[in-house]
Design goal:
This is Large ribosomal subunit protein uL29. InterPro entries: Ribosomal_uL29, Ribosomal_uL29_sf. This protein is mainly α and about 70 residues long. About 70% of the residues lie in helices and about 0% in strands.
Length: about 70
């Protein structure tokens, strides 16, 4: 997991891309969970949600909104 200092040095477009990737990964994990499959690594939910929140915070600090 990247540290917040490394995330701060990234450009807005890189942060938005990272936000999109994390959202997609979280969606896929939720999809697996809803299909009643046992998740191999359930701890990924928390770590990916936390990182997405960090990226969202940085985007808001820079005055940008994530792409929807």
């Amino acid at each position: 997991m990247e540290k917040i200092k490394q995330l701060r040095m990234q450009s807005i477009s890189e942060l938005q891309t990272l936000y999109d990737e994390l959202s997609k990964e979280i969606f896929e994990l939720n999809n697996e969970k809803s299909l009643h499959r046992k998740l191999e690594k359930p701890h990924l939910f928390r770590s990916k949600k936390r990182k997405r929140a960090q990226v969202l915070t940085l985007l808001k600090e820079k005055g940008e909104k994530p792409r929807e």
